[in-house]
Amino acid sequence: MLKRQIKIFTFFIFLLSIVLNKASSEIIKAINITGNERISDETILMFSSLNLNENLNSDNINDVLNSLYKTNFFEDISIDFKNNILTINVLENPIIENIIFEGIKADRIKKALSKNLSLKSRSSFNEVLLKKDNEAIIKTLKELGFYFPIVEIYRENLNDNKISLTYKIDIGNKSKIKKISFIGDKVFKDKKLKSLIVSEEFKFWKFISSKKFLNENNILLDKRLLKNFYLSKGYYNVSVNTSFAKLTDNNQFELIFNIVPNEKFYFNKITLDIPVDFNEKNFNKLKKIFLEMKDQPYSVKLIENILDEIDVISTNEEYQSVTSSVEENLSDNKIDLIFSIKETEKIFVEKINIFGNNITVENVIRNNFEVDEGDPYNEILLTKSINNLKSLNFFKKVNAETIPGTSENSKIINISIEEKATGEISAGAGVGTSGGTVAFSVKENNYLGKGLSVQASATINEESVKGIFSVVNPNFRNSDKSINFSVQATEIDRMTDFGYKNNKTGFEIGTNFEYLDDLNFGLSTSSYYEKIETDSTASVRQKEQEGNYWDTFTTLNFDLDKRNQSFQTSDGFRSQYFINLPIISETNTLTNTYDYKYYTELFENNVSTASFLLKTAHSLSNDNIKLSERLFVPSSRLRGFEKGKIGPKDGNDYIGGNIVSSINFTSTIPQILENAQNIDVAFFFDAASVWGVDYDSSINAAYGGTIRSSIGIGIDWFTVLGPLNFSFAHPISKEEDDSTESFRFNIGTSF
Known about the structure:
Blueprint: H1 2-20, E1 30-34, H2 41-48, H3 58-70, E2 74-82, E3 85-92, E4 95-102, H4 107-115, H5 127-143, E5 150-158, E6 162-170, E7 176-183, H6 190-196, H7 216-232, E8 239-246, E9 252-260, E10 266-273, H8 284-293, H9 300-316, E11 322-331, E12 334-343, E13 348-355, H10 362-366, H11 379-391, E14 395-404, E15 410-419, E16 423-432, E17 435-447, E18 452-461, E19 464-473, E20 482-494, H12 495-498, E21 500-516, E22 519-534, H13 540-543, E23 547-561, E24 572-584, E25 589-600, E26 608-619, E27 640-641, E28 649-650, E29 653-654, E30 659-669, E31 679-691, H14 697-703, E32 708-719, E33 722-733, E34 740-741, E35 743-750
Parallel strand pairs: 1-3, 4-6, 7-9, 10-12, 13-15
Antiparallel strand pairs: 2-3, 5-6, 8-9, 11-12, 14-15, 16-17, 16-35, 17-18, 18-19, 19-20, 20-21, 21-22, 22-23, 23-24, 24-25, 25-26, 26-30, 27-34, 28-29, 30-31, 31-32, 32-33, 33-35
């Protein structure tokens, strides 16, 4: 660097002397280039931007030097100008033949380091970039949890002006988080704050988790998570700072967050400003929310939800070209909000371009778009379209770019995707108090690039063997309707406690589509051949049902889904209704099912669920309902009792009934144990009943209609082997012949 500065200074003196001596400007008549071995004269001239018959001045010289040094091709450059001949002498930087990492065995660490290096193999060496890369290596290692690395760099000169770079690295041990502390006027308990952040304290049983090591990216995320939490609780001016304190010589740290919440703020006056031609009635829901928000603690999340709701209303009411914003006015500890909706010039989608789909048919992608060419441009619908594509699980990446169209009021949407392998092979095993289960599945989610889902699976447990082959087309004939087809075969042996076994083989074909907002409609037809055998000790009524059956049914279903999310739901409800109509059947059994679930948060860090199930079976021909079509309470709806072993009995056999109902309530319990983020505990109350025996009223009179109920604690423990589920239930009400089960567990995994 010093050498370069001296040469530049020398040329400044040279040029200055020309000016002081009032020499006339000289023209470049010839250009000579010396010292270059790999890089051609033409390349150097190109980067220098010099031409013959041009005047030489100080600006020319400076530009030449800067341009050539920026190429990173040269270690040194000198320029001489005599007798109208310009000579450029260069000393080329050596070429990096290879880059070696010594002291690191893990390929993932080597890849992480290589990714962040500026100098690469086959590139020109540069001292400045080498220093930069040294800093990048240390930074990357710290991000991986190695806070005290030692990095030494060795340069080996090779033939033909080539070099080899060796980074000798001693990464040391990972920096463990011994303790996480919160100081300042933190307001909330440490236990609560620890549950919000990503970083974890080191515990010997957390042998897989990487969150127990110091990681700068995780810490930055932790600060944002803590700040967002305080902002959601009314602390408008909260500040969150971090510091580190080394506790031992064994790379163990105390991670300290200094939290200053400052004064708590509350919502005061909230107003909505809309264009004069908008119908105010469309925003009545928002005005009710505004009234409920008054005097409530300030919350960024609530504000974001309102802005989202404004966008949804605008979209639903076809206010296509609008923008929404919020203005906050502070007075003491009160905040006034003014939400504004403004009309913008209508912009239309001129064209949608799709790039990167080498396998997936373009129509499959376009069918998932909420906006089409020629429609008004809408950011919400575009975002929803992108989310639809991501939910297909066909692509690694989905990116959208909007660029100006050919006119001022048009836009072009460019969608770039990166496809991924969509085939799946999975196997699983589980064991519980009711026995073990083994499952195997092969699935292709994007068959032939047409978005078809093709799956073959098999499941084996204590009482049954089941195989299914299914095909699902989510966009049949480029519509928003799905069509599905499946073939399945099942063998169930329930001789011991239920008095029969059966073999069932058949197929099902159906369709499903969104009928109204969040309301899905389904229609399917199924046809099955079934063979029933009974136990030698079964009653006469049961033995009468031995034989072969061919049944064809049509099923209608309505699904109103108002949950905030399908996974880990915390708010909303889901209402489902199914009716199974016999078309060709010997027993002509009609079944109805209604299932309702409601989700809410009764208090902080709680999710409570209330559910109701009603299922009925009725023979339209007044025949006895088949043994395999009788109804039992699902085991998940009545804990504390063995599966199927309640209700009507014919002799020693549980026979089920014609009607089943259940009411369930579950409420999660805040974490009792510190650092138990992988354990969920919930209180539950179950109540259910099964009754109605069509062929013998005396059985129903003896067993039917009694409500069985239980209370208990459920534990979900997410282990390295898979989810482990426990339930401890105490029956409150039962019958003498009921089989109870106070403890239940299940563990399963996939590989």
